[in-house]
Amino acid sequence: MSASVGIVLVSHSAELASGLRLLVEQIGSDTVPLATAGGTDDGRIGTSYDLVLAAVRSVDRGAGVVVLPDLGSSVLTARTVLEDHPSPDVLIVDAPFVEGAVAAVVTAASGADLKTVADAAKEARNVRKL
Amino acid sequence: MSASSDSTTTSATTVSQHETAVVLPANLHARPAGQLARAAASFTSAIQLEYAGRTINPTGVLAVMGLGATVGSTVTVRAEGHDAEQAVTALAQILATAE
User: Fold this and answer.
1) What is the pLDDT of residues B39-59, one digit of tens each?
2) Which domains does chain B have, with CATH numbers?
């Protein structure tokens, strides 16, 4: 296993994305390539095509990238970016934002491949927290 | 390791089964859950954690957290495979030293 799968956190809020980043670095790993795309280009609540694209490019180490959007236009913006720049190695994953990010980062830290990391994030939906 | 630890081995030729019970020195919260999941993924053996009648695969960090295991309770680590003993030792060590 060479490079780790990269993770991109897309959120309406830069603070939400960066806070989640701090959390997953504590629980999972601070060695997994991880980037956030939070808020608009001018720092408001919203999403930015350019920030998402830059984030995806910045974490691509050759093992693929998992993109996790929070909701709403984060999903739409991320999908548009991936449609404009199609790659079989960049996957948008439908997962709960916090739980999916934690599962993805922990799984990526163990050297798992792209499909395994994406599946771990998806599976987060089915894990009870109580 | 915890004084309550107890190992049993029922080995075949190369595949072995190991099991240890650990009394948690702290709640099994997010950080040790992450450590357990990463450690569990590094072994080839099938590993299980058992707590309060529930059994989970510790490679799933969310499943580990979802156990809701609290300080003073007992978690059993079980593994079967070629590196079962090392797996049980490694995971029990994380459980026994969680803060």
Assistant:
1) 999 999 999 999 999 999 999
2) 8-97 (3.30.1340.10)
pLDDT in tens, B56-85: 999 999 999 999 999 999 999 999 999 999
Largest CA distance in chain A: 40
Take residue A69 and report the two structure tokens written for it.
């959007």
CATH pick for A6-126 out of 3.40.50.510, 3.30.470.30, 3.40.50.1820, 1.10.620.20: 3.40.50.510
User: In the block, which residue shows the tokens 């003073």?
Assistant: B72
Please tell me the distance from the alpha carbon of residue A70 to that of residue A60, in angstroms, as a whole number.
20
Q: Which residues of B, range 38-97, sit inside 8 Å of A by Cβ?
A: 38, 41-42, 59-63, 65-66, 68
- Confirm whether B82 is a catalytic residue: no
CB A86 within 8 A of CB A57: no
pTM: 0.90
Beta carbons of A74 and A21 less than 8 angstroms apart: no
